[in-house]
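cron nightly-structures :: item 1 of 1
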Amino acid sequence: MGQDTSATLHYILSGDGEITFKSRPPLKVARGSLVFVPALQKHSLNNFGTGGDPVPDCKPAEMNLSRLMAGTCETHAGQMTALCAHVGVGLRGVNDIIDLIKEPLVEHVSSSHNMRPTLQMLLREVSHPGLGSRAMIKALLTQCMIAMLRERLSSQDASFQWMAALADPSVWNALRLMLDRPGDPHTVESLADSVRMSRSAFAKRFAAAYGSGPMELLRELRMRRAGVLLRDTDLPVKRIAEMVGFASRSAFTRAFEGQAGLSPRAFRTAQQS
């Protein structure tokens, strides 16, 4: 699947296998699995060659999916088929709150799962598109994503303690500054000043809530923003470096290669092709 500049949601329609990552254990998936992958995480969908589940009838041309789904709408023994989409969730006026999720998520949706009706409705919209199907699919995908987040919060998943900590005004206001304007010259001192705290007290509270320091998060947000600009614009790399807060192109290139594994130029070529 390469490295996408947007967070991705995969729903496995048929077959079984695993999703593998560069630097983390693989995730087992099968028919009914719903998998969230954060932006810029290179991953592959690998089929085990078993589980010839029937693939729902679909009309890809009517949803502009013909190029992506060519050849996948027939039933083949051992084939794994996934419905994949970019996904975003906003919170309190911030559109990119989903970029704070650092780990992939997987939910195995059984026939009795409370998300099952939503996913069945999603498949009906893909299989039989009509007036308003795009808006309906977008709403259903967002509903699935919110349900996954709720599930993690209710189970007190340790990797999601930061989301409960958003109730802390100091942490939230600093996060919002970084999410809204990742290219600004933020420092731990400037973020602490913005929420009227001392540097040490702010750094300690932020790390306790989010699990990493503010500068580490800021670097990740800048790289994701840079990835979008490389994909969607023809701006020179030097200009993009400036827009995401780097004083030099060389420093930006080193940081981007460390995050994405490709130079900005090579990443742009791969994304635009």
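cron nightly-structures :: done
The mean pLDDT is 79.
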